[in-house]
Design a protein that fits this description.
- The protein is an all-alpha fold.
- Helix content is 71%, strand content 0%.
- The protein has helices spanning 2-13, 25-44, 47-52, 54-78, 87-95.
- Helix 1 crosses helix 4 (54-78) and helix 2 runs antiparallel to helix 4.
- The longest helix has 25 residues, at 54-78.
- The chain is elongated and about 50 Å long.
Amino acid sequence: MLKQLQHRLFVHLDTENWPKAGLSPLNKALMLFVLLSILSVILETEPDIFENNRKTFKIINSIFLSIFTLEYFLRLWIMGCKKEYRGFYGRLKYIFSTFAL
């Protein structure tokens, strides 16, 4: 069951393995989170907006941090489906790859 989940996430997260044109729904959602995160950072630079919503921005930043940390660890886990990233040393190779950094 865990292998099935790993493979399913691999297909959805690794763009080379998505069988349809374009991005998977999961990657589209992650792209939306990236855009929302950028918007949040931009809004934080406006002193009036930031001062009146300091606590909200802290919560939003925590949510984005959690999402992107989970995504990173999921990608680290699923990359074991690729021959070049299998095993401990394969994962280390992935961690220091351009894409992962």
